[in-house]
Write a structure and sequence with these properties.
- By secondary structure, the protein is an alpha+beta fold.
- It contains five helices and six strands, in the order H-E-E-E-H-H-E-H-H-E-E.
- The chain starts with 13 loop residues before the first helix and ends with a strand.
Length: about 170
């Protein structure tokens, strides 16, 4: 009588999975397994990434073919991929992602005869602030700078944190 009621586990909205598979319109050939990844929203609103590995088996009788499916939550892997390309403090693209976007912008500018602008920003006396007031205060300042830079630019422009107190801005097609 004193036992607590078990909490139901969060459920996925499988209707979205069924819609996704229904739109495949027989694209599965039955020649081998096929894997696809996609985003779903759980009933509690949380976004998750699922990997669906599926294989269709031909049925020699006139009945519809049979399929074997395995679903796997790969959200953690997607989260790690995001963290590999974004700064952990500000959420901005990091040096690696910035270089990738810069290479793409240079290629587009060459193909389309367009201009790009690259700005490098360094916060004066940031080390002194970090050393005297602490890393928590320094992180708040970095987040404020990131927020102010992103609100001043278009969504298509890139603001990145290279590390420490260094930021870059990439503007295309101005």
């Amino acid at each position: 009588a004193g036992a607590a009621a078990a909490q139901p586990s969060p459920k996925f909205e499988f209707g979205k999975v069924e819609l996704f598979l229904a739109r495949r319109d027989g694209a599965l050939s039955g020649n081998g397994p096929e894997t696809q990844e996609f985003r779903i929203v759980r009933t509690d609103g949380q976004i998750r990434w699922l990997s669906v590995r599926q294989r269709v088996f031909d049925d020699p009788s006139a009945r519809p073919g049979r399929a074997l499916m395995a679903l796997q939550d790969v959200s953690e892997r997607e989260h790690l991929a995001y963290r590999a390309q974004h700064d952990i403090v500000t959420g901005l693209p990091n040096r690696s992602l910035f270089h990738d976007r810069l290479e793409q912008a240079l290629a587009r500018a060459g193909r389309e005869a367009r201009r790009i602008a690259v700005m490098f920003l360094d916060l004066d006396r940031f080390k002194h602030l970090n050393d005297t007031l602490g890393h928590d205060v320094g992180d708040v300042l970095l987040k404020q700078v990131a927020s102010r830079l992103t609100t001043c630019l278009r969504r298509v422009d890139t603001v990145a944190r290279l590390g420490g107190d260094e930021f870059t801005v990439l503007i295309e097609g101005f």
